[in-house]
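Fold this sequence, please.
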Amino acid sequence: MNQNIQANLGYSALVTLIFGTIIFSAPSANAGNAYGAEDNPGKARGHVVNDVDTHPSANGQANGHANGQANGHANGQANGQARGKGKIGGQLAAALGSLNAAHASINGLKHASKNSRVGALASYMDALVSYEQKDPLYHSLVDRLIAVKDELTAIEAEIGVINGNIGSLDSQIGTVDGQIGAVGGQIGTIDDGIAAVSDQIAALNPEDPKYTSADSTASYEADMAALEADKAVLEADKAALESDKAALEADMAALEADKTALEADKAALETDQLALTEEETNVQDALDVVTAELNAAIDSAANSLKQAANKDSQIDAAVVNEVNTLLDGKSEDFTYSEVIRETEQYVVKIANASD
């Protein structure tokens, strides 16, 4: 970590820090950065797991986003530790024990042994800088994961609608196909009728005795005219049925074209779904790595602060606030930012957790 020190910590300031009465006006409770249960990922211990009983085994990652925002910053607010205005007297001095003011100089922070109290404070600062540097990537990955899940949900809904429409088209195609079959059957019956009438016409013989005998009342011409009329009626019926069949076949072609278009849309959506599912896995994997790094940074910060403090002292939010204020600006990388501020409640819980 770059520790280009910008300001000297004077002896008198540390004397005040260690031995004097410190009066401060603390900020309001800090909102946590949790992304809650269900499908929203969240930072374990640092941002999600506010119960030290879950530390350090809790992963803190939940894979959904339905209730994530509701359980995120709002719950973090409730879990923040409000600090009121008042005197803490020798509380910080007791917590930091025999920290030597002379060794808390700029050079002390830069060069102190990691096993010393000053070195532990430098490690604490390094850990929080690492946390802050990774925090934007964490939120970027969370936002992308939520977006990908939203896109996948939308695609699944679209595919569901398309599947329903394809099912409806299949039903309509089946109905039309049945109608075409029925019309075809009727046309076949008419063809049989036309063939029978044609046979009768062909068999009609003007020389038949029924037409030529003296007492015959039958008329060849009249019988022929009747048969030809019957045949004409049958042929007209057949033409009407063939027109109906052509219309049904046109309907069938339109339905099949609609189905083909829907199947193409479904295939495109499934391609997008596959790509998004792969991205979801990659983003989740990256988020797991960043979350683990954030957890490690919070753990390191808490343990370093615990090392700097007296072994039997409890570290409360006021102490962490004052330590962060003390370190503000001691490195060009460390400022008492909102991201640093929101870590305080978690540092307190981890530092005070039973081993």
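DSSP finds ten helices and two strands in the chain. Residues 220-308 form the longest helix (89 residues).
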